[in-house]
Amino acid sequence: xxxxxxxxxxxxTTRRCxxxxxxxxxxxxxxxxxxxxxxxxxxxxxxxxxxxxxSSVRFMSQGTTGKTAAGGSRRGAxxxxxxxxxxxxxxxxxxxxxxxxxxxxxxxxxxxxxxEEEGDILERCREFMSPPVTDIAVLQERKGxxxxxxxxxxxxxxxxxxxxxxxxxxxxxxxxxxxxxxxxGGISCVMQDGKVFEKAGVNVSVVFGHLTEEAAKQMRSRxxxxxxxxxxxxxxxxxxxxxxxxxxxxxxxVHFNYRYFEIEEEDGSKQWWFGGGxxxxxxxxxxxxxxxxxxxLKEACDKHHSQYYPDFKKWCDRYFYIRHxxxxxxxxxxxxxxxxxxxxxxxxSFVKSxxxxxxxxxxxxxxxxxxxxxxEEEKDWQQVRRGRYVEFNLVYDRGVKFGLxxxxxxxxxxxxxxxxxxxxxxMHEPAKGTREAKMLEVLxxxxxxx
Amino acid sequence: xxxxxxxxxxxxTTRRCxxxxxxxxxxxxxxxxxxxxxxxxxxxxxxxxxxxxxSSVRFMSQGTTGKTAAGGSRRGAxxxxxxxxxxxxxxxxxxxxxxxxxxxxxxxxxxxxxxEEEGDILERCREFMSPPVTDIAVLQERKGxxxxxxxxxxxxxxxxxxxxxxxxxxxxxxxxxxxxxxxxGGISCVMQDGKVFEKAGVNVSVVFGHLTEEAAKQMRSRxxxxxxxxxxxxxxxxxxxxxxxxxxxxxxxVHFNYRYFEIEEEDGSKQWWFGGGxxxxxxxxxxxxxxxxxxxLKEACDKHHSQYYPDFKKWCDRYFYIRHxxxxxxxxxxxxxxxxxxxxxxxxSFVKSxxxxxxxxxxxxxxxxxxxxxxEEEKDWQQVRRGRYVEFNLVYDRGVKFGLxxxxxxxxxxxxxxxxxxxxxxMHEPAKGTREAKMLEVLxxxxxxx
Lengths: 450, 450
Hints:
By secondary structure, chain A is α+β, with helices and mostly antiparallel strands. Chain A contains 14 helices and 13 strands. In chain A, helix 1 runs parallel beside helix 6 (about 215-220), helix 5 (about 145-170) runs parallel beside helix 10 (about 360-370) and helix 7 (about 285-300) runs antiparallel to helix 10. The termini of chain A are far apart. Mean pLDDT of chain A is about 75; it is low at about 1-115. Strand 13 (about 420-425) of chain A pairs antiparallel with strand 13 (about 420-425) of chain B, so a sheet runs across the interface.
């Protein structure tokens, strides 16, 4: 590991520079791979915490466009650097740029910019699973910054989803708060061996750092050369990610991830982009579930651009592909990266719609199959599919690969996406005409659901 | 995938050249990753098959040194090429050259060259789990070639080990014979959900090809530039590999792999080298088992060179290291690669000693714990350790990574090393002082057993 100059700016105004080994880093191109230091602690929610699924917190439109002015008013600044880290972090973006269509549909986006609530930050934080990573005082001070608004969104998404799952399961999430010594940290919520859920993980991470110019160049793939102050560029990455593995083989596994990156140039201007997606991995095909899931996503997408759903659905099928098996991981959903158009406000509004669609996408399916009876054979097939899930996550998922390769990562948060149990049967081949064979057929030939 | 010129020479004397996509390839630096095409078939052993564990087949010393003359008398020659394939195949060798000590102890090797039996090839083949990959007539014709002698050794090793396991389990191995359309093939023997073994796989593969000079250069790391005829170099790779996952958590998992590479230069001279190793992955530390296992390996090594065991033991601990966990996969054994000294005969003799040590290393441990009672908690801990096994194999094992990345590989043979079942518990941390904690302590700080 290369020794690199790490500049830490605390959330106060003092600036300290130090030499350090890279010990953590930024969120990777995808997914359930938080960026994490080893220091974690169990945490109990703030007093008065209650489930606020119904309280749709909204943000005021700030009317910002493309680049936003940064400088002194920015988030108390930030933290980590290291070419390797950032290179890997953004490998996903590069790969997507090469292989997939890009999310450049600026001119067509609908003007539906949702107003935000002017709710008090402190009040909203009381609904979270844990205090946010950033000091509440800092969030309050920088209420209008996109980094604050996104951090509030991912914390709310985590809380809403965890509480919806707790309600249906009867169990409680274990909440681990951890911090990176290089800057930032995260909150991992895990429920294991519940009544309904075999393993449910919902993770938030917010990390800061500095990139070298070389790393920044690799980070952004649109031919832009970024100029840093003394060769370094402040950088921040944050996201919420989740994988839910239910016990009942008739309830599908769901995964989602929504993330935001910011990088600041010498002149104070910012590059920023969003990424994310939600996808479903059933054990058996249920047309009605698939239609509900995809329709709900499509509705959320259509509010913003008519091409979002068809484009991001294809991108999803391509990303979650287990190449050595010639099959997708599940029946897809949406996946996008590098989204920085038509403007920051509208891009954020789209991400917000997606994040708020997670509960309505998934919970009705969970509730519908809650009491479905199942056989031992169905459970076995679920376990075989879980094995494929492990294969995808360990072999292909860029976030996981990047996280595992990074010293100082919080491994438990990265691998929380793995199921509690999985199975590998030699030469497992479902008999023709069975429901298992029908599932495989769909995985080998992704369908257009809506 | 690059389209490459593939020259196939059948085992007859006809030579045909054709353009083809690379669809398979040579054995990777490590391990349980056979190289494989998709065409497989179930197979029943030759008539008169019986377990020949006691019949120690030996080879006549040929007294060959360093390079051997090749040319017309070589194995029917042949087969696959493709820089990517070979580059990956030998990435292990390169990595080892950079990170580990090398197996260059030529001057010190003992002169103990074991005589081989002059047994009839056909008779010996009757003991195998399947006819060998190479036509028996070809093997008979080229009885003295190292490729023939190694193919006989790996087939014998497979048969001896499978039969020893069948005897103890009472079950029967499923034998799948498969061939690569680009040349060569393999024999996969798998027993699943037996009385003693949850999953037991023993695989042989024998593949042939041509390398480009560039690929050959990357293949050999000792600064040698290899010159091919018209830029291409005939190449062959073969090996036996196995992973055994027992049901009882008091019986450890074992893995071994012994392999041989040959590459032919323009002037007909050959580069060749051996690689391999045997290592143990217990669920609980049993000092007596560890001593037996390591002592048996040490004895086999000491017959050839006093540095082999200490050097290859260290190499093993370094190779089977789960970096993101900071722990080794198991309690080690031996691991070596790129072994081409002091001469071919002695190197082969050493590999033969190792291969013949597999049964005496492992079977006494199996038999000793066959009827050990175990608790549900012990079984759970076994499943957690199986999860780590999966992590190593999917994230780090060069053979698996290479195999999965190669179109046309026989995935079922590559992934036969995965356990039938595995488990990932969030934040699993054995309590201090428990036997689980003691196991972890050893994995985090590899011991010198003998």
